[in-house]
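Let's practice the habit of predicting before peeking. Look at the sequence and jot down your guess about where helices and strands might fall. Then scroll down.
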Amino acid sequence: MLIKMPKKSKAKIVKRQSNEEDEQLPSKQGRVEHSDTPSPLCFDSPASLFQSLIQPMDTEHFFREYWEKKPLHLQRCDPSTASYYQSLFQLSDLQCLCSQGLEYYRDVNVVRCINGKKKVLNKEGQVKNSVLQKNFVQNKATIQFHQPQRFKDELWRIQEKLECFFGGLVGSNVYITPQESQGLPAHYDDVEVFILQLEGEKHWLLYSPTVPLATEYSVESEDRIGSPTHDIILKAGDLLYFPRGTIHQASTPAGVDHSTHLTLSTYQRMSWGDLLLDIFPSLLSDRSKTEVSLREGMPRSLLLGSSDGPDSRRRLAAVLRSLADEMETGMQEIRSTHMKRDFIMNRLPPCSQQQQQLTPSGRIPALEDMVCLRFKEHMLITVEPSQKRTDEAMELVVFVLHSLKNPRVSHMMGESCDEEVEQEIYRGLQFPLSHLQALRQLQQVEQLAVDQLQLPTQEDKLSLVLALWSESLLVVL
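Done guessing? Here is the structure:
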């Protein structure tokens, strides 16, 4: 059940398609077409959406007892929930989708598990529905559809809210498997997985992790996995959760025409270890500017291994202990830059009824106006070195990053865009460090008078709100 998550470059930035490719998709991609089927989900807020997704389980109970700990099966006997789940994606959707230029490997995989091994039955080039159906019926192959939120508006709506809730990327795959067949061998993933059973039934076997909270995908041999810890029949409307590292395999039972399920996945590369890897370079760089001992040369021949003794280890350990003490007391600022940028650049844009909502709204703000931020959950503020190349000492500046212009069509696909588009997204809005407090003011309140912004001059106040308004991030009340 490997979910395609974006690969990070050395700069931790995933290049994406240009916006021109959005125009190749059907016009429905530009607007939300809600299903006629009543939704059991509550979209009032990210928290309410997640709560309704796992109902009747309580969110606090879920994170206390199950998250990253053990699987959870929620059985639903409500026909309306099953009907809504089916509306998200079904076998009959494939014919229409195949007419939209789908390609093997990129959009669709055709696979079958035979004797514990995955056999890939993909063709070359574009996917034809007739060939896909032939593989499905005659070869009893599983159809794996990558990132359906690119085409299905309701999934866009769900996953955009979940990305706000988790503060991380949320991907999805659809698996359609004929009866008495299995698509993938026993394996584990590096993501937290939520399974929504959309059509039919699926028989799941779960096993104890050999690598708890795994950081990579891996197939496990039958002789290593032992006996199942869970033997579950997932029915339409049911939900199954299991943590990353949980070994699993699934098949469609006899007597069930086919099974369609959706996997929602999140928390790939979102561990404490990943955060430390992100923040440590800036921590050490800042400390080296103020502490002469860190700028002293290391012992001769250390890189050759001849001086890798107790003295070197003690000195390095002392630096780390000192850094840890300053982090704990708040004396040392912690700046996560690459992980924040990677998330904001690659997440879904806001799910909006009208594209006009993503353009500057209302009149230009003035000093006497009350204003508020729009799309707060799609904004990030970072403090980073200025990207201007100068011979002077490094200057820290404030960046306001947002996902309003992100192309939905390339969400979670790891595709590249041209350099100009990437640079526009990468730069964000840049302000002097003196503007940080005013930006945090706007983040923390529902509304604020422009004149009350904590900036020294009226010109600074107007300049800040005008820049945010121009990016559709602020509106005059």
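How did you do? Residues 310-329 form the longest helix (20 residues).
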